[in-house]
Write a structure and sequence with these properties.
- By secondary structure, the chain is of the alpha/beta class.
- The two termini are about 70 Å apart.
- Strands 2-1-3-4-5 form a five-stranded parallel beta sheet, with helices on both faces.
- The chain folds into two domains: about 130 residues, Rossmann fold, CATH 3.40.50; about 190 residues, Orthogonal Bundle (Hypothetical protein af1432).
- Helix 6 crosses helix 14 and helix 6 packs antiparallel against helix 15.
Length: about 375
């Protein structure tokens, strides 16, 4: 059962003061008289005090020495201490406050004043404990909320990954001529971005990119192919000019699909990356690409990176209308395309990470 009466230890080497103080306090509090500081610590060994009334001038251990010991012990440091003194000395009072005293009371005691000072200190201490408990509770709630948010974020990430994998499979199921293209280009893009970081290329622009969003977004670069007719998408031969124009429509179809998702959400970083990659990976550095004809650094960086990954994979892949080129031939075509088809700075990075790209090719 929770105790209702607060416990006060009254420390004074004068028996008369102990009796007087106990007589004033006993109606309202559970009082433990102590004739010395040494006795105080004996009582604290078995009693959890709510407040200590501590005489300053005592033989043996003084009140100043006692409060130093109290405040040095985590078990007793939080107990409010009110000093009892028969002499008003501002220097001594300041020294006591510096050591952690909560208040001073001058002897001989005034009963109403003593009770009011104790009441005030116990109220302050109660409020402090309530605040600490509330703070601890808030921290607990915050930790719990953080855990739930982390779990929900992980769940959303897993769901996002599953949806992307499904969409990618749908695209490649329809575009049967480019099996594995989406997965490979994503890996090439990862290597290129790593090379950019290592070389400090476009460092300011990519510094704030979250790769957990950028790289999965690369899987949507050809999502618009879902809207292209099978007769064009899977034609076992070269496309006519009219069919090629229809094929080029996959870019705008992909942009439309991603924009529809953005309109129903908060437009996350992931979707912005996906939009730039899907919408601009067929633009060319010299402005002759499609669908808009953007030029140079007006092409979003994500699209310029994907342009290299996309073309390289197409070059080394066999199609019904062409044989696969060797890695050497493909690298040479990319190199020659610097400044016309591709961003020259990115081509230089691509060539420096050639061994890693070839490792993916061999796999």
């Amino acid at each position: 059962m929770e105790r209702t009466r607060k416990r006060i230890i009254l420390v004074d080497d004068m028996q008369a003061n102990l009796e007087l103080g106990r007589g004033i306090l006993k109606t309202f509090y559970e009082v433990f008289p102590a004739p010395s500081a040494e006795k105080l610590f004996e009582i604290l060994g078995r009693v959890r005090a709510d407040l200590i009334l501590l005489d300053i001038e005592m033989p043996g251990m003084s009140g100043m020495d006692a409060i130093k010991r109290l405040k040095a012990d985590p078990e007793t440091a939080g107990i409010p201490v009110i000093f009892l003194t028969s002499v008003s000395d501002s220097d001594s009072e300041m020294a006591g406050f510096d050591l952690g005293a909560a208040d001073y009371i001058t002897k001989p005691f005034s009963g109403p004043l003593l009770l009011k000072r104790i009441e005030n200190q116990l109220l302050i201490e109660g409020q402090r404990k309530s605040l600490e408990a509330a703070h601890a509770e808030l921290q607990g709630h915050a930790a719990s909320l953080e855990g739930r948010v982390r779990e929900k974020t992980e769940e959303v990430t897993r769901l996002q990954g599953a949806i992307l994998a499904t969409v990618s499979s749908l695209v490649e199921f329809r575009d049967r001529l480019t099996g594995g293209h989406i997965a490979r280009t994503q890996r090439y893009m990862q290597v290129i971005v790593d090379g950019m970081v290592e070389a400090g290329v476009y460092a300011a622009e990519i510094r704030d990119w979250d790769m957990e969003y950028l790289l999965p977004a690369a899987q949507l670069h050809d999502v618009g192919k879902i809207a292209i007719a099978d007769a064009v998408l899977n034609k076992p031969g070269r496309l006519t000019p009219e069919e090629f124009e229809a094929m080029k429509g996959h870019v705008n179809a992909g942009v439309d699909a991603i924009e529809q998702i953005m309109a129903m959400t908060d437009g996350s970083e992931f979707l912005h990356h996906a939009l730039y990659i899907a919408g601009t990976h067929h633009e060319m550095w010299d402005g002759t690409g499609y669908p808009i004809g953007l030029k140079g650094q007006n092409i979003p960086l994500e699209g310029r990176i994907m342009a290299i990954a996309d073309v390289f994979d197409a070059l080394i892949s066999e199609r019904p209308y062409k044989k696969a080129l060797s890695a050497d031939e493909a690298f040479e075509i990319i190199r020659r395309g610097a400044g016309t088809h591709f961003d020259p700075a990115l081509v230089e990075v691509f060539l420096t990470v050639r061994d890693r790209i070839e490792g993916i090719v061999r796999e």
